[in-house]
Amino acid sequence: MNFRNTLYNLRNNFIRAMQGRYIMYGFDSLSRFLFTGIVILMFANFIIRSSIVDVLELILFLYAYFRLFSKNISKRYRENELFVSYKQRLLPGIDKSKRQISQAMHYHIYKCPDCGQKIRIPRGKGKIMVRCPRCRHEFRKFS
To answer: Which pLDDT tens digit goes with each residue over 2-34?
Structure first.
């Protein structure tokens, strides 16, 4: 019974210590990026064995944990928003590519021979007649 009370007290103390911390809202994009970078640097350091990589790894590690245990939630939120905006500007095609890959598993994408409009056709329907929604031109395609 005493061990159970000790565990219960430890759990309650941990929950009380974490209240108001940024980690309670989960991992955001910047945190995932930082921890992914740490793992990549650890792997690179395993191969390269460089003190510069060690220091960079430690700095990223400390910053990532500082962000997670911070009580200044609004500032951490703004940091994440800034990171997301830079990421979207630097890598605009990533989301588009992900969407195209996921749709390619379930759909064929064809262009209308008349107007060039892209048309999404479900896979596995055999030969079908396709009508372009823009120009109403009909053509036969295999789905």
So the answer is: 878 888 888 888 777 777 777 767 788 899 999
CA distances from 94 to 35, 91, 98, 101, 119 (A): 20, 6, 6, 11, 21
Q: Are 73 and 22 in contact (CB under 8 A)?
A: yes
Which token pair is 37? 């970078």
Dist CA 32 CA 39 (whole Å): 11
- HSE-CB for 111 with a 13 A CA cutoff: 4
- Binning pLDDT at 50, 70 and 90, where does residue 1 land? low
94-111 residue pLDDT tens: 777 777 788 888 898 889
**How far does CA 38 lie from the centroid of its chain?**
16
Strands 118-122 and 127-131: unpaired
pLDDT digits (tens, 9 = 90+) for 28-54: 889 999 999 999 999 999 998 889 999
> Which residues pair with residue 120 across a beta bridge?
109
In angstroms, the CA 53 to CA 41 distance is 7
